[in-house]
Amino acid sequence: MKKLSVLLVAAAVAISASAGVNFKNTHVLKSNKISTERVKTSVKKNQASIRSAFKAPEGELKSYNRAGYYVYVSDGYLYSGQQDGNRIDIVYGEDNKVYMKNILCGSGSYFGESWVEGTIEGNEIHVPLGQSIYWSDQYQANVVLAMGNTIQDEDGYWGIEIDDRATEAVYVIEGETIALQGTEDLNEADDLFGYGLTAYWEDDDSWSGFIEWNTVFTEREPVVTPTVITEQPEGELVVYQRSGDCIYSGMFGLGITTQDGKINVVYAEDGKAYIQNPLWWFDGNNSWVEGTYDEATGIITVPTGQYLNWYESSEYGVQLMWGSTYVYLDTDENGEEGYYLGNEVDERTTEIMFQVDGDKLILLGSEGDATLEFPENYNATGLYAMWSDNQTWAGSLEFNTVGQHVDLVPAVPANPVAVEWYDEGDESGWNTFDFILPTTDVDGNAIDPEYLSFSIFVDNGNGPELFTFPAATYTYDLTEDITEVPYSLYSSAVDFHASYVYFYRTNAEGYEPLFTENIGIQAYYTVNGVKNESEIAWLYEPQPQEKSYQLVMLDMNGNPVVYDLTQGENGEYTTTVALNYDVFGGFDPMTEERPAVPFYFMVNGVRYGANADMTAAVLGMAMENPLAATDGCYTVPVGYNYNIGIAIGLQGEMYAYVAQAGFTGVNDINAGKTVANVRYYNVTGQEMAQPAGMTIQVTTYTDGTTSTAKVVK
């Protein structure tokens, strides 16, 4: 068992999960001329780039530790260091082919983990230069291999000078070592200067920020990558809301806190059980651990040592173990007494047990009381996070863990709150919309943020419009445009955060404002495929808008004849039009053929017509197909008077309707005819037993003719 002692102080303690770098006479250049992305350079090139593979080639895999010197740019500074211990993999394929992964020190973490190709000639490996070790979607450019040396100009710019005579990198194999040839330290007094293997951005000939020399690879046993379960296994998913205590060491120091969030458990058919995030503080990238479930006893048994994550380039990860923490008094090197936190893994415990008790999931065997006074409250036994490389504490120990079964019942979220809009008012165009998403449903019950999402709406005077976030314009980490934003989405830029959204490019010259009058937000809660939504919360109280409705008829020459629609006592918008022959076309008394008169509607200046966001009501006039759709218009025959208008449905939908009101010169009187039957319809086309409100009355005569009238009861 190994013990790690940490002084309990209030100062922040930063813990890094990356491998350390041993620096040799480290130089830090406090120059604002060093960029984390691009460093000025004088690059010359004469090789075309070769795209490298990201899939491991077939062949014999061997692993090597590397040694040598290198220079790199990080966080705006230039460093020199040693390559000690950093791993490289080499695959020996057929036909003397060789493939090398992470050929540059640090390229695995900075430029992906691509493979480059070479060939074996005798005891030498020849790697063609110009091969890509990284492709950037943002820059649409490759980072390619080259040979060169570091330079510094009179203005203080650091960069790389490419040796355009070099066409390949040559490595010599000597037993279990492989050495890069032809490199050298150019200045023993200043180890920022060397000649060796490097890389540059092909699009603008700028330095990638790496150069290494005196490189030697030494063979070692390959590290077997452990299994980390990241996909949800098949089986019945049961969700538990967790509670309990956690002793942690994080970015801002050491402390005790209560657990929250969820524990997901999948009960599989083969007696297996899988638990997601068994540790709350170290969530393991939402990974799962595997155990067995005894239905008779209700015990889930999870073997210790399972990995919650794995850092491939550094070859270590976090394992789930059983351990303890405790506090003790000690003195430091200056003789000052203080409290220290001790922690250790219990290597004798090989299994962790959970009890399924009704609707509860209980961690068994943990001990501790977080309510005690310091230092006793830090003495606990329970689930333990351990670094696999040195078996030391990875920063959390959890005890008294209990999960309460959660019924995933769809809920209607409470309304969000639109707080404020902040506009910087300059050419940068960075504007912020602040809001607060609900944490309860409309009845005040807590809801799970994992199932929350939201949309943004704007109103520029034409009513609510759903806002779309174009990925190319507003975000760097989205591949497609989005209108509904997951609550958990945080952009790598500055677009989405916990309770505010950044908009930009709204004030700069050449860009139209995203909105001019009002902005709002709507929350959604989606569970098991059922989505419920809140009301839209507007930044400013929406003002009622007077809408204008117009009917547009087309005369015999195709010119528009516009009629204003007025609202009637039953809420419909209508007008009476007389389709006379002089304006809308002639009538042949021999054939009684009448030309069709096209018409459509304008709502707030926007055209609505057939097949365009409007439904035709049943109108039953003395003519066939009174609302036939042609070329985006409704049509009616000439020669009649009509009541034509729009009815608004209960859900805001619009219906076009036509009611015959009389005749305009056709001597076709129904007087003296015998009535066969009378039927009644509402404006949406539904038949009614008796007239009620505004009703369309359709009378059918014994000779087969019909007449239609609008009546109000």
What can you tell me about this protein's structure?
The chain has 713 residues and is mainly beta. An 8-stranded antiparallel β-barrel has the order 16-18-19-20-21-25-26-28. It has 4 domains: 60-220, Porin, CATH 2.40.160; 236-405, no CATH class; 417-538; 549-712, no CATH class. It is extended and about 110 Å long. Helices cover 2% and strands 48% of the residues.
List keywords for this structure.
mainly beta; Porin; eight-stranded antiparallel barrel; 3 helices; extended; disordered N terminus
How many helices? The count is: 3
Poorly predicted parts: 1-54, 618-625, 665-672
Task: List the strand order in the largest sheet.
Answer: 16-18-19-20-21-25-26-28
Shape: extended
SS-derived structural category: mainly beta
| Mean residue pLDDT | 78
Brief summary:
The protein contains 3 helices and 52 strands. It is an all-beta fold and 713 residues long.
